[in-house]
Structure formats: C-alpha cells, structure tokens
C-alpha cells in the first residue's frame, strides 16, 4: 500500500528554498515514528534536503530523471514509479514523503494520509498537491503540544481511503 506523510501550513505550503519553512521537533519525531521500518519514497530534492544523508532504519528510495544520479549503495534510485514494485512488496506500506511532483505522481494510488496540519501562515515555494478528502475518512486526530521548542499550533491527522 501507498501512504503519504507530510506537514503543511496554511495554504498547503510544504517547503521554501529547498527546506522546511518551520522548525517543529515534535513533527520530526512523528515523522520518524511513522516511517521507521518502512520504505520511504522521495524526490531527488527532498533527498538532498536531508542534512546527514539517507535516513537510518528505512529503505531510502529516491526518484530522479537522471539514471546516473549518484546514491550510496544502500539507497535505491528510480527513474520511473513503475520500478517501485521491484523494491517494495504490495503488502508493505510504502511511505511517500514528497515533494510536490512525487506526491502528484502517486496521488491516484494513495491509501493512507499522515498529515501534520500547522496552523500558521508561512511563505513558501512548494505546495502540497490537491487531495480529494471526500475519498478519505479521518481515522485519527491529535492536537500537538505547543511549548518553547514547538511554537506553532499543529494537529496530527490520519486518513484512510474509503
Ligand atoms: N512539508 C513536508 O512534509 C515536505 C515533504 C517533502 C519535501 N518538502 C519540501 O519540499 C521541497 C522539495 O520538494 P520539491 O517538490 O521541490 O522536489 P522533490 O519532489 O523532492 O524533487 C524533485 C525532483 O524529483 C525528480 N522527479 C520529479 N518528478 C519526476 C518524474 N516524473 N520522473 C522522474 N523524476 C522526477 C526530479 O529529479 P531530477 O531533477 O534529479 O531529475 C525533480 O527535480 C523542499 O523545500 C522540501 O523541504 C516538504
């Protein structure tokens, strides 16, 4: 199955200048909890936004149009989404983690959404694709804790395809 994992602020903003527009450690923790142990599927730019290279304890799958894009041996490089089935079993939960073009690529295939909704207006240059929420049911909702390290109000939501 295919899941999306992302955080968006008001107006569906997800990125600015190649990085996240906000700092929200509790969301990073949720991302880690949700994705660890599952393959993560991402665009080349999202991969390059990781400060310390591939994320540990998950198969990192990078999508690029460049078949020669250099990745370490532990990382899988795809040039086409149809190659995904060679690396991920249908029973596994493949976590598509962005960015924009990669969410668009899988929007008709996605079964589950892990959304962090940030109730703040950020400037950005990358937006989440349009999702038809009529096709999904909200199965989990949890208000995030606001504190000195997590200063923006946020809500964790999970949706499953009806
Ligand atoms: N808030 C969140 O949850 C979240 C999640 C992910 C990313 N982000 C943010 O979003 C930004 C990065 O996202 P992005 O949308 O700019 O880039 P991206 O989707 O991560 O990467 C774009 C690259 O993916 C490859 N690609 C895209 N479509 C393809 C296709 N049809 N076939 C083959 N390869 C394809 C291309 O790589 P090549 O150029 O190598 O061919 C393209 O340049 C950053 O600011 C990041 O921090 C935020």
Automatic annotation (TrEMBL):
Domain (DHFR) ranges: 1-161
Keyword NADP found: yes
Reactions the enzyme catalyzes: (6S)-5,6,7,8-tetrahydrofolate + NADP(+) = 7,8-dihydrofolate + NADPH + H(+)
Pfam families: DHFR_1
Keywords, alphabetical: NADP, One-carbon metabolism, Oxidoreductase
The protein's Enzyme Commission number: 1.5.1.3
Keyword Disulfide bond: no
One of the GO BP terms on file: one-carbon metabolic process
GO cellular component: cytosol
Pathway given in the UniProt record: Cofactor biosynthesis; tetrahydrofolate biosynthesis; 5,6,7,8-tetrahydrofolate from 7,8-dihydrofolate: step 1/1
A single MF term (Gene Ontology): NADP binding
Gene3D superfamilies: Dihydrofolate Reductase, subunit A (3.40.430.10)
Family named by the database record: Belongs to the dihydrofolate reductase family.
Role played: Key enzyme in folate metabolism. Catalyzes an essential reaction for de novo glycine and purine synthesis, and for DNA precursor synthesis.
PANTHER family registered for this protein in UniProt: DIHYDROFOLATE REDUCTASE
Name the record gives this protein: Dihydrofolate reductase
Species, as recorded: Companilactobacillus nantensis DSM 16982
Lineage per the UniProt record: Bacteria, Bacillati, Bacillota, Bacilli, Lactobacillales
């Amino acid at each position: 199955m295919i899941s999306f994992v992302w955080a968006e602020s008001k107006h569906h903003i997800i990125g600015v200048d190649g990085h996240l527009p906000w700092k929200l450690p509790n969301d990073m923790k949720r991302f880690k909890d949700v994705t660890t142990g599952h393959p993560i599927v991402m665009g080349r730019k999202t991969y390059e936004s990781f400060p310390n290279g591939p994320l540990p304890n998950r198969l990192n799958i990078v999508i690029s149009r460049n078949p020669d894009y250099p990745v370490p041996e532990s990382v899988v490089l795809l040039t086409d989404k149809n190659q995904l089935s060679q690396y991920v079993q249908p029973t596994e939960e493949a976590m598509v983690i962005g960015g924009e073009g990669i969410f668009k690529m899988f929007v008709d295939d996605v079964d589950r959404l892990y959304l962090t909704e940030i109730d703040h207006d950020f400037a950005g240059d990358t937006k989440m694709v349009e999702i038809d929420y009529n096709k999904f049911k909200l199965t989990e909702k949890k208000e995030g804790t606001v504190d000195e390290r997590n200063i923006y109000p946020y809500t964790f939501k999970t949706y499953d395809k009806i």
